[in-house]
Fold this sequence. Notes:
Elements: E1 4-18, H1 22-25, E2 29-40, H2 42-47, H3 56-69, E3 71-72, H4 75-79, E4 99-103, H5 107-119, H6 150-158, E5 159-163, H7 170-182
Parallel strand pairs: 1-3
Antiparallel strand pairs: 1-2, 4-5
Amino acid sequence: MNRFDRILIEGLEVQTVIGIYDWEREIRQTVRIDVEMAWDITAAAASDAIADALDYKAVAKRLITFIEASNYGLIEALAGSRALHVPQPSPDTRPTFVRLPVIARDEATRTRAVDRLRREGIGASAFYPRAICDIENIGSHMPGPAIHCEKAERLARTLFTVPVHPLVNHRDTEKMIGVLTAV
């Protein structure tokens, strides 16, 4: 299984020519950037070898070199440039996304919360369709005899999850807080 981690390069300051006004084209200004990358850390975690890790110093150097040599009018053009390359995980890997369990006061509240979060573009999930004690063929895997689990049934009706992995940004967090406060 591949394990992803959040790699940050924060507060990288680079001098470059940027701007649309004549006076801006005659000076170098400081551009401050933050880069966030999801990166597969499986090999580095297993080997403890720098050769298996993302070389974020090399990434920072490439960013500096590119930005210093750039000559964009708009910061948006710089940020959106196809020439601005940040390493991506290999296509055959999948990140693991951490989720936060939330227990709603009742099933109707869970349904409203999940529906509203999804409309806001947040991947909320009503996790369990029913209590684990009610899932077919699970009895042989239970530590004791099959029993009626009233609390587990209630939890199955009220539990949902929201994403809290590193790719969730501040705006997503604000949306989640707004929806959860409103329901």
